[in-house]
Amino acid sequence: MTRAPALPLAAMQWLGALWTSPNTALGLLAGAAGMCFGARPRWERRELALVFHRWPWGPGGALTLGNVILLNGASLDLACATYEHRAGRCRHPPVRLGDHERAHVYQYLVLGPLFLPAYLACGGVSVRNRFERAADRYALHGRGWWPWSSVQAGESE
After folding, report:
1. CB of 20 within 8 A of CB of 113?
2. What is the pTM of this model?
3. Which of 33, 56, 127, 138 could form a disulfide with 87 if both were Cys (CB 3.0 to 4.6 A apart)?
C-alpha cells in the first residue's frame, strides 16, 4: 500500500493564509490606520507576515492578526520577557519577540477565523492562556507552538 504524497509546506501555508484571511483583513485595516501615524509595512518572510513597524497604539510589544503583525517598535529581534517572567516565574531567558509572534501566525494558519474566539475563551492576554504559553514555548525551544501540544520534559504547562 502506497501513501499519498504529503501536501507541500508552501501549499499548506497558502491554504492557511486563505483560511485566516478574515483575521488578516483586520490586521491590514489596523496597520493601514497606523500608517497615518508613522507605521511602515514590510513583508517579513521569516515570520510569514506583513509587519507594520512602529505601529502607534498598544502597551508595547506586538499584536498578531492572521498574517499581519502590528509591532510597536522597530524590530522583531527585540528580546522580550515571556508570560512566565511577567507572572513572576522567571525560569526562562528572554525570547526573541518575532519567534513568539511567529507561533501566533502558525496558530492562526491552523485555526483561521476560530483563532480569536478560542484565544479569548482561553483567557485573552494572560499567562494562563495556553496560546501565549505555547508561543513562549516555541520562542524558547523552536517547537511546541500548538496550544494543545503535550508538555515537553522540563517545561511547565
Report:
1. yes
2. 0.88
3. 127
CB 83 within 8 A of CB 123: no
- For residue 157, name the pLDDT band (cuts at 50, 70, 90): very low
Rounded CA separation 29/55 (Å): 12
Query: Cβ of 96: how many Cβ atoms within 10 Å?
Result: 16
91: Cα separation from own chain's centroid: 22
Query: Distance (Å, rounded) from C-alpha 55 to C-alpha 8?
Result: 34
Cell of 30: 489596523
Q: Give the position of cell 508570560.
A: 83
In this predicted model, what pLDDT tens digit does every residue of 108-141 receive, in sequence order? 999 999 999 999 999 998 889 999 999 999 999 9
116 Cβ contact list (under 8 Å, min separation 6): 23
